[in-house]
């Protein structure tokens, strides 16, 4: 009997790839649960999902059944050994609880690099040049916003610091190289893959003091929650800027808003917030910041790549016992 | 011997903004500097016969239009006989009638290169924004709609960027977008030699460029030959679902044809920094949220502005000290 795979959520771009990758080796069932209680019953012995060996998980399923927290991991059937999360960020998945049940969690790094880095470049340019404000001003019937020259800068010659240089950060560095910025980064340890024209700074506060723009690019976990707080923001130069395409809670949002209000930060470019889809009204009311609704990977190519990578993890698990991208905690 | 007299025709209230120090110390070292205060065009014509009747060179900024209007044939002919140089602040100099200047033996300079980085940055931004549909996304956040109603967007990765008018701005923009895995092709009247120092392909017909490009970027000057030159025929030659980016001049494009191409879906999106009748913008563009619009922001930074002001001074200093203009306009160099 073919191993059973449960699809939790929707496959938007890769229905065909799902057919091609999984149908030859597995029986695919699509989640038909209206509530968390019902899903847990379906996982329980005798339920229709009680024999799934792997799960494809997509976050919109949370609307119906909630996030894959400890309770859900405990409710999964004994047979389930692979949890393929679609997305690079997997802070919504309780990996520790999964490990306790012998379940490997995979994510989809790499698939998001280009789209996220492109979004970051957009936010960077928009902040330094105040383009969000300029477009809003034009569409409201104005033209050149008063004072924009005074507050806008060319990227060339300015310093950008990357907090958390991983594959997204490296892609981002390659994108911004022609703009002539001085590029530095801080990780707990230097990244061996870092390009030569990117300077490592071992002390985070030293980096913060040097940057005109801070680009937040680390994963969200217990060590990085609130990493950029009041002290860190005030270590930055007056008039500097923040760009965040990682996760909202890495930055202390209250401290960031305060710094915007008193001008210590002259602008921020955000694709992520602490409590999406809600956005603090104080940010919405600021014309000089750029805000996007977590669209870092909201395009056809990145979405398809993520879906395919998650499916590939399941296919390889079923055929070889191991997928290509288990999360670091599960290796 | 007294220093030659020069006139600053910049912003009527602010004058030169970022380089007042250099105006005094560098330009002032070789010339007697007057700041124009004519309140109207007629007053300016009078002043040209009076207090400005001995000026040799003019620093010109588009902001002077507010007081004295364009540097058209009428104004050029009203300038004093002593006037030999008009040094324009800006890469585009369509507000100056160069033929009228040439007829009067007045040489004109502009500020290429000083505008390249700032303008190319706008072009790269507009390309990304149009493809990724970021304007709508931003509006959604501020309206509390989050991702509601957003259509699937596209990436620059793997797309063909066609540059019409590969010059300083076009090259800089190409270099900025190549790392995004865009392929660059360009059309100029003649292939550039020596070849560009970045990967790009010359195509010898504009039609071929239009048929192959996913993103078309206009990077050519506005003059009699190019005015309205991008119209129905050109849009029909573009790929279905392509993107137009314009950081050149609004009047290069036939606006009615452009609006039709947007409405019909021929164009997936557009990124526009320039308009035919600034600061007025066609309401049909303003009401279109699938496109990205900027109010001529190409060089709206203190960094670019200062570079441009200094470049004008450098041209003036070179000219009045007998070394000729550094950046004389193309039409006069033949």
UniProtKB/TrEMBL annotation, chain A:
Family: Belongs to the D-isomer specific 2-hydroxyacid dehydrogenase family.
Gene Ontology CC annotation, any one: cytosol
All residue ranges annotated as the D-isomer specific 2-hydroxyacid dehydrogenase catalytic domain in the record: 59-324
The name this protein goes by in its record: D-isomer specific 2-hydroxyacid dehydrogenase
CDD domains in the record: Mand_dh_like (cd12168)
Domain D-isomer specific 2-hydroxyacid dehydrogenase NAD-binding: 122-296
InterPro entries assigned: D-isomer_2-hydroxyacid_DH, D-isomer_2_OHA_DH_cat_dom, D-isomer_DH_CS, D-isomer_DH_CS1, D-isomer_DH_NAD-bd, NAD(P)-bd_dom_sf
GO molecular function term, any single one: hydroxypyruvate reductase [NAD(P)H] activity
Stored Pfam families: 2-Hacid_dh, 2-Hacid_dh_C
Keywords linked to the UniProt accession: NAD, NADP, Oxidoreductase
Annotated organism of origin: Dioszegia hungarica
Gene3D superfamilies, alphabetized: NAD(P)-binding Rossmann-like Domain
UniProtKB/TrEMBL annotation, chain B:
Signal peptide: none
The protein, known as: D-isomer specific 2-hydroxyacid dehydrogenase
InterPro entries with a match to the protein in the record: D-isomer_2-hydroxyacid_DH (IPR050223), D-isomer_2_OHA_DH_cat_dom (IPR006139), D-isomer_DH_CS (IPR029753), D-isomer_DH_CS1 (IPR029752), D-isomer_DH_NAD-bd (IPR006140), NAD(P)-bd_dom_sf (IPR036291)
Domain D-isomer specific 2-hydroxyacid dehydrogenase catalytic, chain residue ranges per copy: 63-329
Start and end residues of each D-isomer specific 2-hydroxyacid dehydrogenase NAD-binding domain: 126-298
A GO molecular-function descriptor: hydroxypyruvate reductase [NAD(P)H] activity
Keywords carried by this UniProt record: Oxidoreductase
UniProt similarity note: Belongs to the D-isomer specific 2-hydroxyacid dehydrogenase family.
Domain of life per record: Eukaryota
CDD domains: Mand_dh_like
